[in-house]
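fold-stage: in
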Amino acid sequence: MKATEMDNGARAKILVLDDEPAARLGMRKALQLSKYSVEEAENGLVGLEKVREFNPDVVLCDINMPKMNGLEFLKTLNEEVENPPLTIVVTAYGTEKVAVQAMKSGAYDYLTKPFEKDELLLTIKKALEKQQLFRENIELKQKLSDLTT
């Protein structure tokens, strides 16, 4: 299985959630060049709709956005979506304290802007690997439960 694929061979899906069009474009290009399937949203409200429609494996989420910021998005995502995607918080330099708060609220990891393409891709790869292990764990528990009943 390639890092850009899920266990069923499909391309991993990434939602880029940022109010800055240039930031979304930069992340989109880097991800598409690495063969990920990518969707975008400009704020947390649109992001929640995209999560329900696109069912991403990972969300890259900016903190400071209009209408619904990244922390509100993360809280709502974890409350309303069963098995939510792993979220990587993207934050500007100097707001690491907010990123730590996001981690405490359920974010998988965070990146500080500006970040290198390799750093972005490695963080996504690690998130996808963790998600794959989580899915395999659930599957194995189910098989074990079936064997014991």
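fold-stage: in (second)
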Amino acid sequence: MDYTKKCKEWLDIRYSQKTVEGIYRPHQPIYGILGGYCDPGFLIRYITSYHIFSLLDRLNFNSFIDVGGSEGFTPYRVSKSFGVLVESTDLSKEACDRCEEIFNIKATPSEITKMPFKDNQFDVSLCSQTLEHVDDLAEALEELLRITKKALIITVPFEKPEQIKHNKEKKWENLHEHINHFDLESFKHYNKDYKVLKTPILSSATVSKMLSLENITNFIISGKNHDTKLEEIEKSIQDICLYFLSQDLYLVQKVENYQGIRVLILKDEDSYSESNVTNYNIQDLFSSVPYHYI
């Protein structure tokens, strides 16, 4: 039995979920902070996005692909912020269908170990919160580097090895769990060929604050009505989020307790600057779209 095939079936079911009214239930917060219907932990996803966009702002690039791109929220925001050509790919055809329906972004269903793209096709490739699920990690990484011309951005969770060991033992019972463990040494073997920058992210303190804020947000969503000044409330929540996000790296260094790792592998060192290149609008992180019906 093919584990990847079983995960694809699981993901296709996930990306077909909708309410009784037909509103698509997204993985990412595509309807905005107060839009609802998103998977739990949606505010934490803004932390990872913040660190991805902080790196993109230091890169000179004209094309971008999100590998494991879900319903396409990240390439949509990248297109808005940086004005580059974007694509997405995901194991799930349903995820790719949602990406094209909602954002009008080209999305190609494919396995990460055999993507149908040319060598060096994309200036920047992103693989965020995906490699922890992959059955053949080494082959996936080689394929990511093959399609990347300038820079590969990776984000992965930092978890206890014993939890990953348990997940591996039970992977056929609990599909799409985290079956690969990562730490700051996981990508060091690429140093011989490329410049590799590794950064701990997702301070436990930041995650805790965002989860508390999400609880408040869910309470507002459950009781919202047309008489409530939702736009003002949402803007206030965004401002609080941005403050928490801006403090994340400081808290990682101060507390030394983190739950994620950001990796930048540079195939072209000249594409990277120590300072910001574009000064993108950080509010683009909170972009949203109308409810999508399927």
